[in-house]
Design a protein that fits this description.
Length: 304
Amino acid sequence: MNRIWGIPLPGFMRWRLARLQEKLRPERGFLKHYRIRRGRLCVEYFSVTNNGFFSNCSTVLADILRSRRRFMWVDKINLSKSMYLYKNDPSIDIYDSYFSVPNSPPKLRYMHFDAWDIHEEFRKFDLAAFHELATHFFSPSLAVQNYVKKMATAINLDPENTIAVYYRGTDKHSEITIPAFQEYDVAVETIDQKYSKNLSILIQTDQQEAREYFLSRYRDRVIYFSDLPVSTGDKGIHLQDYQNTFKISPEQLAMGMLSSVLQMARCKHVVTSSGNVGFWIAIYRGNANELYQYNAKGQLVMPG
């Protein structure tokens, strides 16, 4: 790539392009369609990862920031070569199905972030800066916004008086130490004692046993999104034949997952495990206030 609009690029720009392509991991994505916008060298980012929905989002975010550190601005994201687990037609770009398309180059800060950082303590991140990035690149589409409202209405969600509990089970034990269900009682009871309210508990999990534990432990206080499937095995739902097993389409699964994260981020109190979903709850939240996190070692980290 030595020209834009047929005009030869200066030597320093060709050097920047070459260096950046070396830094990007080919198994995650690549850059294409270089152009100058408002005096900035802008590019389109093509993701090629095919993991969990929010794992894909984390790798995109990491490469956006990696590009910025090479003085290049990603201003468009293309998912036509990724997210195969969440679409029936592997060739389509589903970005605008879930996110609002930005209409201007982003105001990107110079920040370091790697996709594996999602196992760090969320309170140590500049969550306000990440929230700004999410608002630009990962703001929910109108369809998702409507689905969020539908989900909230279905369970009478009152975010101000709800503890959102996210428990990631199944295959996550290969990456982190998963706390026992009873460990989450510590965080929930800490919130109960602090606020002396009979707060609702929104439980979101991929593990059926976790949902059953909270229902038996907290009974009428528990609410959950019945549209999202749970599993009794140790295999991630997105890695199963979920269309036949749970009778849910790829689009419905992705829409439900994204909407549930947006709902949990709105709740005044959050208890979450480490990982991509917990990280994106924190990003959409924009701060670590009343955010209780079980870290990669299974230890409770209090709000920052």
